[in-house]
Amino acid sequence: DAGITQSPRHKVTETGTPVTLRCHQTENHRYMYWYRQDPGHGLRLIHYSYGVKDTDKGEVSDGYSVSRSKTEDFLLTLESATSSQTSVYFCAISEGTYGYTFGSGTRLTVV
Amino acid sequence: AQRVTQPEKLLSVFKGAPVELKCNYSYSGSPELFWYVQYSRQRLQLLLRHISRESIKGFTADLNKGETSFHLKKPFAQEEDSAMYYCALPNAGGTSYGKLTFGQGTILTVHP
Q1: I need a surface site. Which of B34, B68, B88, B89 has the fewest CB within 10 A?
Q2: Could you tell me if B112 lies within 8 Å of chain A, comparing CB atoms?
Q3: Residue of A nearest to B6 (CA)
Q4: What is the tens place of the pLDDT at every residue in A44-63?
Q5: Does residue A28 contact residue A44 with C-beta atoms inside 8 Å?
Q6: Rounded to whole angstroms, what are the CA distances from A100 to A97, B90, B109, B112?
Q7: Of B32, B49, B103, the CB nearest to A42
Q8: DSSP conformational letter for B16
Q9: Rounded to whole angstroms, how far apart are CA atoms B19 and B60?
């Protein structure tokens, strides 16, 4: 067990609807991240958190918001989903210097 | 700003052949670099860190500061090495919050 789970694993949603993805960790790591994975772009940081209620934007944050009310949970919300947000979303956790542990990913399709 | 470049999107080799996945970086200071691997439909997992100087699954990577490279090498590729490989670099600065910048990834295919 990697100590980090993402839900849902797959989701199909319609354009314009809100979507929330959940990342849950049992490792008590301070840092949590949301990335999206797209062909040709690799992994791009959407938002990250450095503590409860402490979050900041990454390089591709437009159209996304996050919340972290507990150490173990980091939520990613697409306020109004668009087709350009069709992607695979990965959550990761870190203690800062040892690299990341990743979740299994959420495959999101916006139709 | 730091940058990681993996010049090859796709790399194909035959089983038993040597393989080298290229990674170049730009960074001010002494970087710590990582290689992550993603097998088909699995989560990304850490393959190796330059600072630990370990050899994992037969892979090694040497940091070349002069060429700003951190190429991943294996002398004899196996079919199970077929995967997506990402090179990653920590963000610079005192408040980097552990963030990593990833390259675009290289898909390695090892043919039987």
Answers
A1: B68
A2: no
A3: A42
A4: 999 999 999 999 999 999 99
A5: no
A6: 9, 11, 25, 32
A7: B103
A8: T
A9: 11
Residues 6+ apart with CB under 8 A from A93: A3, A4, A25, A27, A29, A31, A32, A33, A100, A101
Quick: pLDDT tens for B20-72. Answer: 999 999 887 777 889 999 999 889 999 988 877 677 889 999 888 888 999 99
Are B42 and A43 an interchain contact pair (Cβ–Cβ within 8 Å)?
A: no
Q: Which residue has the tokens 């970087």?
A: B31
The token pair at A95 is 């203690």
In whole angstroms, how far apart are CA A73 and each of A69, A70, B51?
7, 6, 30
Q: Is B30 left (phi over 0), alpha (psi -120 to 50) or beta?
A: beta
What does the block give as tokens for A3?
Answer: 């100590």
Helix (H, G, I), strand (E, B) or coil at B79: helix
Contacting residues for B66 by C-beta, under 8 A, at least 6 apart: none
Give the chain B residue nearest A49 (alpha carbons). B97
Instruction: Verify whether the Cβ–Cβ distance A90 to B105 is below 8 Å.
Output: no
